[in-house]
Structures are given as structure tokens and as C-alpha cells.
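Closing statement on the histidyl-adenosine monophosphate sub-project.
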Amino acid sequence: MSNKIQAVRGMHDILPEHSPAWQFLESTLREVLASYGYQEIRTPLVEKTELFSRSIGEVTDIVEKEMYTFDDRNGDSLSLRPEGTAGCLRACIEHGLLHNQVHRLWYTGPMFRHERPQKGRYRQFYQAGVEAYGMAGPDIDAELILMASRLWQRLGIAEQLELQINTLGTAEERLAYREHLVVYFRAHHEQLDEDSRRRLETNPLRILDSKNPDMRALIAGAPVLADYLGEISSSHFRGLTTALEQAGIAYTVNPRLVRGLDYYSRSVFEWVTQSLGAQGTVCAGGRYDGLIEQLGERASHAIGFALGLERLVSLLEHTAIPVDTAPHVYLIRVGEAAEQAGMLLAERLRDAVPGLRLVLHCGGGSFKSQFKRADKSGARYALIVGDDEAAQDRVSIKNLREEAEQLSLSWGDAIDYLAKV
Ligand code: HAM
């Protein structure tokens, strides 16, 4: 039996070979967010369990069966955050950021849900989230979608993504709709699967979100919320669709899009891809004005979305990623004097050429074995210091990727040479 300890099921390591895609995604995301004036916020990974049950909803899958919940040593019930919206809003309320103010915020980090692991679905996964407070919309609703769309363009994955939108109306409008929905599903009780029968009592709107193909026809015939909306909700939705059309953003209205978290009202949206199999939603969100009051603050406005970073990285890995993390230079040094000179030269080069990625060979070995390492590192150039070079303050430069003559240069000339790479 092996005594090696493995990672917890559903929690994965991100190995260096995948880092270029992560870094490209994260740096592009930061640039796009900055270009719309969004500011970063960081909140704890652990919150009081009550925060999630009061916001995401007592009878959602997340709160009912997916949270990592435990009592800490004081006996308080705490949970690892399953998402970032609740914590972000909690922090803004706690620090008085919402009074007559608008904020455009973003965060990123790991989230935790005890779901059944499969490709694209993990128990620890990374989200980047965006939350905008204090704006009634629908212009800010449109801005969020435009910003996501710009991100897809910049990442080179726009062609693979489709935008679906819907409106969930207000809590009152949903209540009226819910009654009609319950009447409809009760009349077809024998066609409901077990999950839907349970949801009929607890959260009937979620039946619309069922992935069971046997339920498809029944769901297609169900009443739609759009028919129960008041004028304010309808015109909010029209405002959003008009703004999207003016900006040239293609969308599909999906009346079955209900989202798995209870806090939404009015606009909701998801970006989905066919390229990733069953877990195809890479970005999802919507408006959640009511949650602010629900968490004890004076009523205001809120809307946001979150990106599933693992899923986006999977999409990116099918495309060419313009990020090069290989070193420019690998410095080989053989001999006692050369080892000392090589380290000095490496530091000198890093001082003189900011941005230069230089790996200094450590751990000794022959020229041959050091050249092998240099080649494997992906570096473009090998810098070679032997005792002869060390005695004369010189260094040899060999291009490892192209046929070219090996050069012998003074340190000053080597700095000038590498400043141009
Ligand atoms: P969500 O739909 O639960 O919304 O998650 C957003 C995205 O996170 C999903 O579309 C998916 O890409 C990713 N995701 C969710 N669960 C997993 C998982 N187990 N493994 C891998 N990726 C996953 C929210 O979390 C809301 N807080 C979004 C929001 C922000 N609404 C308003 N503001």
C-alpha cells in the first residue's frame, strides 16, 4: 500500500505547465477591469454560515448540500465560501461603503463546493467576480455584459461563447408567477422526477433549470415569467436588450434561465460554450438588489457576475497563448572561479536589464550536463562562464535555438547584447 498522501478529491494542483494560461487570463482580466474603473477587494475565505444561508438561500443546492461547514473552537458555525458575492456585500455593508455611493469592485480566489467532481467541476475552484453597487440600471447591466464580451475578445475565445439572458422580475412578480407554475406542475405531477417533486414544495422555479432530458417537454410547456412582469421590470429588460443591440452584442433570451442562487431579481445572464462538455457555463450572474436590505442595510442596487477560471483556462488551452514564461538566458558556469564570477554576472545582468529572465545554473556538473539543462529550460541563449572567461571578465554567448556563431564578449558588451533581446 502506498503511503503517499494525495490531494483531497475534487481539489487540484495547478502545475507550472498550465501557469502561462492562468497568467494570461489573470493579467488580461486585470487590464480589462481597470479599463472600466473596477477596483479590487479581498475578503476572507471563511464567513459565518448564516451569511450564506441568508443570501444564497436555505433551500438551494449550495446551502443544502454543498457547503464545507464546521464549528470552530468557539462553537460558531463557519463555512468556506462557496462564492464571492455574499462576502463582498457583507464587507461593503460592514465598512459603510454603500451609503449614497456607487462602487465597481472585483475579486478573485478559490471557492469551495462539495459537488460531485467531474471535468470542469471541482470542490475547490477559482472564480473572478465583479460586483457593482448603487446603480439602478439597466445601463450598468449592459456595461457588465460589454465588459465580459471585451474580455472574450482579448482572450481570443469570443467565437466559442454564446450569451443567454433572462429577467427574473421582482420578488413579488416571481411570487405571482410561482403560483401559476405550481398549479401547472401539480397538474402534471406524475411526469415530475424525484428532484422536481421535492423542488415543487421548496423552490419550484428551480424545476425549470432541470437537466433531466425526460423533463424537457414538460418544462417547455410551462408558463413563462415574462407574462407576469410589471411595467418597470419589462422596461428594465427592454433597456438592457436595446443597449446590447446598440453595442452589437448577440444574445439569446432564455426564459428557462433561473440561476441556482436565490438572491437574483430582474436581469440574469450566462455565457456558455459547447466546447467543454456538460460544464459549459464560464460566466454567470445578474442583479440582486433585494439582497442588500435582506442583509440589514438600507435598500440600494447591486449586480455582478463570476467567471469560472478553470473552465476559461480549458478554453484558452485550445488556443495559442501569447505568454512566454521560458527564460531568455541560462547561465552555465564550470570551475570554482567561474562559479563566483557567474553569480556576480547574473546579478549584474538583472540590475542592468529589467525584465530579463535569467536562470543561473546551480548544483555544479560538467559543461555537457549543464548544456542539457539549458536546452530543457527553453532558454534562447546560454551564457557560458569557464575559468578562462572568469579570469578575463568575459562571457560566451551561444544561441540555443538558431544556428549562429558563438560569441565571446566583455561583461559590458554582454549587457548591451542582452538588453536587445
Ligand atoms: P455561479 O453560477 O454559482 O454564480 O458560479 C459562477 C461560475 O463559477 C459558474 O458559471 C462556473 O463557471 C463557476 N463554477 C461554479 N461552480 C463550480 C465548480 N464546482 N467547479 C468549477 N467551476 C465552478 C456565482 O457564484 C455568483 N456569485 C455569481 C454572481 C456574482 N452573481 C452576482 N454576482
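The radius of gyration is 28 Å. With this model delivered, the sub-project is considered complete and its resources will be redirected to Aim 3.
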